[in-house]
Amino acid sequence: MKKILKARVLNNRALTGGYSRIRLHVPGFSDAAAPGQFVMVRVTKAQDPLLPRPFSLMDARDGEVELLVKAVGFGSRLLTDLADGVELPLLGPLGSAFPEASRALLVAGGYGMAPLHFYTRRRGDRNGIHLLYGARTDGDLLLKDEWGRLLPPAQIHYASEDGSRGFHGLVTGALEEFLQRDPKGWTLMACGPMPMLKAVHHLAERFSLPCHVSVDEPMACGYGVCLGCVVPTHDGYKRSCQDGPVFDSRDLRWEAL
Amino acid sequence: MTDLSVKLRGLTLKNPILTASGCCGYGLEFKEFFPLERLGGIVCKGLSLKPRNGNPPPRICETPAGMLNSIGLQNVGVEKFIAEYLPELEREKVLVAANLFGECEDDYVELARRCESEPGIAAIEMNLSCPNVKKGGIQFGGDADTIHALTSRVRQVFTRSLWVKLSPNVASIIPLAQAAQKAGADALTCINTLRGMAIDVETGMAKLHTTYGGLSGPAIKPVALRFVHETAQNTDIPVIGCGGIARAIDVVEFLLAGATAVQVGTILFQNPAAPVELIEGLERHLAERNIPAARDLIGKVKTHA
C-alpha cells in the first residue's frame, strides 16, 4: 500500500533569485525514486491552500529528499518560508523518469534544472553528460559550485538572457550552437518552460536526435484521478502526472501546446 | 459496536462515505492507498455512450480553500468501463454507482439500459448538472419538467437504485428535486460544482481555457450544506450530500442537515486516503458520544425557532 509520508524540513536554504533549496527527511521514501520523478507536497496542514504542490526531485537518497522551490505565489512562499523541523505530508515518488543514455545532453531552463541535477548526481560515469543551463541572469543560475563538482567545466555550458554569464541569449540558442559543433549521438533531456521545451523538440527533430522533456502543468492530485494536468499527445490527452511528467517529445502534439 | 450503515431506500451502504464522480477516476487508483471495500461506494467518473476527450488545458486552478475545474467530462465511454474497469471493481467488492451523462434524452435511456444489464452496477447517478460542457447534462438540469420527463424515461429502464445529481446553479433547487422524486428517483445528490472564474493578473488571461469552471472544495461547504438541508426539508427521498467535505465533522454536519450519505471529491486530491480517515473519524465521533448508529444523526439539525 502507498501512503502519504511525513516529510520533516532538515534544512531550508535561500538561494539567489527567490529560490530555496529544501532538504527533507522522509522516512519510508522509496530508494527506487528516479530522476524526472516528482513528489506532491502539502504547504500547510490547514485547508488553504488546499492542494499539494508538485516538485521534481532534485535529489533523493537515504530517506532524504531535496527540492528546488521558487516563491511565485502564496503556496510556494509558505514553503520557502518553512522553518527547519516543520513536518508536512508528502506523496511520492510519482510519474515517469528520464531514460538512461550513454551520451546525455541535458537542457535546463530556470528551476527546470532540478531533475537534471538529480540525473547527473545519480550517474556514476559522467563522461557522456553535457549540461546546457540557461536563466535570465547569472544570479538566476543556481548551484554553480555544485555543478562544478559534478561535471568538469568543459561539460557545462551556461546561458543568460542578459549576457552576464556564458552564452548571451536563451539556452535553446546555446543548444543550437552546440549541436552545430557536435551533432551526433546525443539523447536530449530537457526541463524548463513550455516554449523552451518546444524549441528543444524542434532542434532534436532537425538534428534527428531522441528527446525527452519534463512538462510542468498545473496539477491537483498527482496520482492520476483529477485529469487536470493533461497534455495533448498523438494518442489523445495524457496525464502529465502518470503518463509523464517525462514524455518522449515526439509523442506530444506541439502545435496544440 | 457503532453501526455506520445507511439505507438509500432499497440499497444499503456499509457506511455513508462515497467517492464523488469526477474526483476518483474509475476508482482503481485508490487500490494502492486502501482496500476499496472500506468505502460505502464509488461513484465513477461520468460516462457517455462514446469516449470523450474533454476540454483543452488549462483545466484547473486553485482558489481560496478550493479549486476550479473544467475537465469537460473526459471519459473512456460506457462500453470500455464495463469491459475493463467494472470487473476489477467487482473483484474489489466495492459498491459501484455509475455516473451517466448524455447529449440528449435518448443517450441517458440508452446508458441506463446498458447499466441495467450489468448487475455489478448497483446504482446509476444521472448527471444533470455538469457546468463545463454545454451538452453535459446541464441543459436538462435547470427545468423541472425536463428533469421529470428524463428521469421518468430512465426509471422505466433501470430497476436498481436511481440517483439524480442536481446543480446549485439554479434559482431554486426545490422544484427540481421534487420533479426528480415524482419521476421515481431513489435519491438526490446535492450538489454539483458552482460556476466560477479566476484571472491571472500578470497576463490578464482567464485561468481556465473555458473561462468559467466548477468551484469545489471546502470553500463551497456552507453552500452545499444549505442545499442539502433545503432539499431534505422539501422531499421524502434520501439526499446524498456533496460539496467541500474534508473532515469527519463535515460528514456529521451533512448528516445532521439531512443527508443520508455523502460524497467526497476534491479532498481526495489532497489526500487519497481521506475516505478511510473520514470513516474512522465518523466512527470515533459517534462512539465518543454514545450514538449507536450513523443514521441516528440524519436530519437531526435543530434550528432557532
Feature tags:
heterodimer, A: about 260 residues, alpha/beta, Elongation Factor Tu (Ef-tu), domain 3, Rossmann fold, 2 domains, 7-stranded antiparallel β-sheet, 7-stranded mixed β-sheet, B: about 300 residues, TIM Barrel, 8-stranded parallel β-barrel, 4-stranded antiparallel β-sheet, about 20% strand
Q: Please give the share of residues in helix of chain B.
A: 25-40%
CATH architecture of the largest domain in chain A: 3-Layer(aba) Sandwich
User: How many whole angstroms does the radius of gyration of chain A measure?
Assistant: 18 Å
How is the quaternary structure best described? heterodimer
| Separation of the first and last Cα atoms of chain B | 35 Å
CATH superfamily of the largest domain in chain A: Nucleotide-binding domain of ferredoxin-NADP reductase (FNR) module
**Total number of strands of chain B:** 14
User: What is the H-and-E element order of chain A?
Assistant: EEEEEEHEEHEHEEHEHEEEE
**Count of helical segments of chain A?**
5
Give me the side-by-side strand order of the main sheet of chain A: 4-3-7-1-2-6-5
Number of domains as seen in the coordinates of chain A: 2
Largest sheet of chain A: 7 strands, antiparallel
Largest interface: A-B, 33 and 34 residues
The helix/strand order of chain B is EEEEEEHEHEHHEHEEEHEHEHH
Helix-residue proportion of chain A? 10-25%
Tell me the CATH topology of chain B.
Answer: TIM Barrel
> What separation lies between the terminal Cα atoms of chain A?
36 Å
Describe the structure.
The complex is a heterodimer of chains A (257) and B (305). Helix content of chain A is 19%, strand content 32%. Chain A has 257 residues and is an alpha/beta fold. Chain A folds into 2 domains: 5-94, Translation factors (Elongation Factor Tu (Ef-tu), domain 3, Beta Barrel); 104-214, Nucleotide-binding domain of ferredoxin-NADP reductase (FNR) module (Rossmann fold), CATH 3.40.50.80. In chain A, α4 packs parallel to α5 (194-206). Chain A is globular, with a radius of gyration of 18 Å. The N and C termini of chain A lie far apart (36 Å). With 305 residues, chain B is α/β, with parallel strands linked by helices. Chain B has one domain (6-56, 71-197, 217-297): TIM Barrel. In chain B, 31% of the residues lie in helices and 21% in strands. Chain B is built from 9 helices and 14 strands. Chain B has helices at 78-91, 105-116, 138-141, 144-157, 174-182, 221-234, 248-257, 267-270, 274-288; strands spanning 6-8, 11-13, 17-19, 41-47, 60-63, 66-69, 96-100, 123-127, 161-166, 187-190, 194-197, 212-216, 239-242, 259-264. Chain B has an 8-stranded parallel barrel with strand order 3-4-7-8-9-10-13-14, surrounded by 6 helices. Chain B has a 4-stranded antiparallel sheet with strand order 5-6-12-11, with no helix packed on it. The longest helix of chain B has 15 residues, at 274-288. Chain B starts with 5 loop residues before the first strand and ends in a 17-residue tail after the last helix.
